Amino acid sequence: QVQLVESGGGVVQPGGSLRLSCAASGFAFGGYGMLWVRQAPGKGLEWVAFIRYDGSDKYYADSVRGRFTISRDNFKSMVYLHMNSLRVEDRAVYYCAKDGDKYSVDVWGKGTTVTVSS
Amino acid sequence: QSALTQPPSASGSPGQSVTISCTGTSSDVGGYNYVSWYQQHPGKAPELMIYEVNKRPSGVPDRFSGSKSGNTASLTVSGLQAEDEADYYCSSYGGRNNWVFGGGTKLTVL
Q1: Which residues in chain A have Cβ-Cβ distances shorter than 8 Å to B99?
Q2: What are phi and psi of B84, to 5 degrees?
Q3: How far is residue B103's CA from residue A47's CA, in Å, rounded to a whole number?
Q4: Cα–Cα distance for residue pair B33/B20, rounded to 1 Å
Q5: Residues B93-102: pLDDT tens digits?
Q6: Dist CA B48 CA B89 (whole Å)
């Protein structure tokens, strides 16, 4: 069964840091790109970051570039999102997602909630 | 990285067809055949319904179809059923290794 399980969300003050983790199972993790997508309360989906199957390339949305870092460990089938200098507007449910090729997402996790508040 | 434009709402009666539009630019929707559509029920994760403009993943009913003309992509749901009531999001490759999503459309089955 293909599955993505996120963890690491929580409440953090503005300017703080958080690391999200995503455990993948049920597919050949090392053969696929992975993404993080977020959804602010009552809002639409927003692509955050993408990492290639081997970690060789990483791409970021303008809104998080320089503050967030995506990484992966293919031996552990894990993908991470390191978030620094968090802002109130980063508050959202963060979904870990699998690249279905040709810029589609064919597997989504259930999400983990990040709240940035003083 | 501007969001793609979708109507905020759409509706139809059971058995009817409804079409949701997704308008971008020549740099995203119009420039690539990499448009996807996702269905999201309240409190749930999104689910892929259409990829590469008009392809359906296995398990997605053939009532769901996609198309594209110029800078606008469309999702058509035929034979509306109660369980189709959900939010629908389009997405496209935005060039320069960017992904872009639409703002979402709330589909109501009357």
Answers
A1: 35, 47, 50, 103
A2: -80, -10
A3: 12
A4: 17
A5: 988 888 999 9
A6: 10
Of B1, B51, B101, the CB nearest to A45: B101
The tokens for B1 are: 């990285």
Q: In Å, how far is A81's CA from the nearest CA of chain B?
A: 17
Gap between the Cα atoms of B98 and B78, Å rounded: 31
Indicate the pLDDT class of residue B1, thresholds 50, 70 and 90: low
Tens of pLDDT, residues A42-97: 999 999 999 999 999 999 999 999 999 999 999 999 999 999 999 999 999 999 99
What is the pLDDT averaged over residues A26-52? 96
Q: HSE on the CB side for A58, CA within 13 Å?
A: 17
Secondary structure (3-state) at B76: strand
For A89, phi then psi, to 5°, come to -75, -5
Cβ of B100 and A100 within 8 Å? no
Return the number of other C-beta atoms located less than 10 Å from residue A2's C-beta: 10
Question: Quick check: A106 and B89 CB within 8 A?
Answer: no
Tokens (6 digits) for A101: 């090729």
Measuring CA to CA, which residue among A85, A90, A43 is closest to residue A67?
A85
